[in-house]
Request: fold
Amino acid sequence: ELRDLVIKMAKENRSWGYTRIGGALANLGHEIGRGTIAEILKQAGLEPAPERERKGTWAEFLKTHWEVLGATDFFTVELWNLGGLVRYHVLFVIRLSSRKVHIAGIIPEPDGKWMKQVGRNLTDCMDGFLAGYRYLIHDRSSLFTKEFLAILQSGGVKSVRLPARSPNLNAFAERFVRSIKSECLDRMIPIGEGSLRRAVDQFCEHYHRERNHQGLENKIIEPEFGSGEEGEVNCRERLCSMLRYYYQDAI
Reply:
């Protein structure tokens, strides 16, 4: 039905005005005036193009910018050192399309100066993890300072600050935190900062090169071996057998 087609075009192309929709309909052999299109959209509860575009859904935003979207977050880990139990903060960044993760820093107490250096590292034009990316999703933590966000902006990365109490909008970062904690950090008590860094590094190696990801059709992000080999089955172990990976030698 023509009315349904008008509504479909308006919903799928939020920037299209009445004239643009009329032109697209004419391409399909339907001649319909701007006033009629406006009335159909008004009855359907759809606003004119500028308002429709501003009210795009979160899912649409993710889909549109999927290949240039990153997300970041902190998680905390408690470790033992000579002074007793100390809480460390781990800052990471994840590329949504590939799920690749970069540990941006590990520190007991992040401050503005440290965050500024992290921002410079992430947007470095040669090897910055966010080089070529356009958006970075993050929560409202005060650790994401104005200076940090300004450095990102100067590197071409726009801040996407999430509403308060909305962890589901940063689901990919949240999922990484659950994975590293349940599969690794919650099963050990690091002794000293070096032990924590080694555990995080080893998990990230496992995460990228050995771990299957359901969100990526159960595939490995950066596989080292091909599938379907017929050699002997071997097991690679990390962190005292906490993480295991099975593979076959090539013949």
The mean pLDDT is 92. The first strand starts at residue 69 and ends at 81. Strands lie at 69-81, 84-95, 101-107, 135-138, 158-161, 212-213, 219-220, 233-238, 243-248. Residues 207 and 233 are 20 Å apart (CA to CA).
